[in-house]
């Protein structure tokens, strides 16, 4: 059983949903990433997702795009993200997931990428621009290194394709809650609830469901968990706090408080 699977099994026993906290690695500076991750974990995050900065993050909205630019300007590279992961894992025993656009993996070499990911403690990888039809070599390498391959499904994904994606994903199935890019939203749309219910019918509990894109408030987290999701993925909310408090002591305190609020909302009644 993978570390991600173990985490979801533990959450089910505790009658809780999971909180997956996304941050852009190297934002605002590589020296801060491990400190930020430590605070998120202390606040209750069950899984940390590190975004590897890329010059053309097509799935991301302006908040994460700005974080990506800050990270790139600070000199963050794929190899530096792996070293940040190692630093996080020295102090914490929770799953680490990286999100990377496929161009970065291809340039590094698929085998080399997974060799490094395994060596530095990565438990799962999300590649938003890699469809399952083109992922055979990628998935084979990931499985050889015992790293989960986390694929995405959207509100427009058909039942047939959803079944196909669910068969190929491991760790969890990443449900994109809205059409468009990442970012803070005011409310959870009906299409998100329908997607969760369709995915639940297809997977029948075989793979955990995690909902991301637009999840930023405790009430959002509560809604998706109560609708049948196993976890909520929050990104832009954390990144906005980092942006507003760059290089200030208040940043870590604010991140902790926000994480606690979100995690409290994952408790099932």
Q: Which terms would index this structure?
A:
alpha/beta, globular, 269 residues, TIM Barrel, single chain, 12 helices, 9-stranded parallel sheet, 9 strands
Describe this structure in words.
The chain is of the alpha/beta class and 269 residues long. It has one domain (3-264): Aldolase class I (TIM Barrel), CATH 3.20.20.70. The protein has helices at 3-13, 30-43, 62-73, 78-91, 102-108, 110-119, 136-144, 159-168, 190-203, 218-226, 236-244, 250-264, and strands spanning 18-24, 47-51, 96-99, 124-126, 148-150, 152-153, 173-176, 209-212, 231-234. Strands 5-4-3-2-1-9-8-7-6 form a 9-stranded parallel β-sheet. Strand 7, helix 9 and strand 8 form a beta-alpha-beta unit. It is globular.
Quick one: overall form?
globular
Q: Which range does the strand content fall in?
A: 5-15%
Mean of residue pLDDT values: 92
Strand order, main sheet: write it out.
5-4-3-2-1-9-8-7-6
Beginning-to-end CA distance, first to last residue: 28 Å
CATH architecture title: Alpha-Beta Barrel
The structure class reads alpha/beta
Q: What's the main sheet like? A: 9 strands, parallel
**Helix/strand order:** HEHEHHEHHEHEEHEHEHEHH
Radius of gyration from the alpha-carbon trace, in angstroms: 17 Å
Percentage of residues in helical conformation? 40-55%
């Amino acid at each position: 059983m993978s570390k991600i699977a173990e985490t979801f099994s533990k959450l089910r026993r505790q009658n809780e949903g999971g909180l997956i906290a996304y941050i852009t690695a190297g934002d605002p500076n590589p020296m801060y990433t491990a400190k930020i991750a430590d605070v998120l974990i202390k606040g209750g995050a069950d899984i940390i997702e590190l975004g590897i900065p890329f010059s053309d993050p097509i799935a991301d909205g302006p908040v994460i795009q700005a974080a990506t630019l800050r990270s790139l300007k600070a000199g963050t590279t794929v190899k530096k993200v792996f070293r940040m992961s190692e630093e996080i894992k020295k102090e914490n025993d929770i799953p680490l997931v990286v999100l990377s656009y496929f161009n970065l993996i291809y340039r590094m070499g698929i085998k080399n990428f997974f060799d490094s990911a395994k060596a530095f403690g990565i438990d799962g990888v999300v590649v938003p621009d890699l469809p399952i039809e083109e992922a055979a070599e990628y998935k084979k390498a990931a499985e050889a290194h015992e790293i989960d391959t986390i694929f995405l499904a959207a509100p427009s994904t058909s039942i047939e394709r959803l079944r196909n994606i669910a068969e190929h994903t491991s760790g969890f199935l990443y449900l994109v809650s809205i059409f468009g890019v990442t970012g803070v939203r005011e409310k959870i749309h009906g299409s998100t609830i329908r997607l969760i219910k369709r995915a639940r019918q297809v997977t029948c509990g075989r793979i955990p469901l995690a909902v991301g894109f637009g999840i930023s408030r405790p009430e959002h987290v509560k809604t998706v968990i109560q609708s049948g999701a196993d976890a909520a993925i929050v990104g832009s909310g954390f990144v906005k706090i980092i942006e507003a408090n760059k290089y200030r002591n208040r940043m870590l305190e604010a991140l902790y408080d926000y994480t606690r609020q979100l995690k409290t909302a994952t408790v099932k009644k």
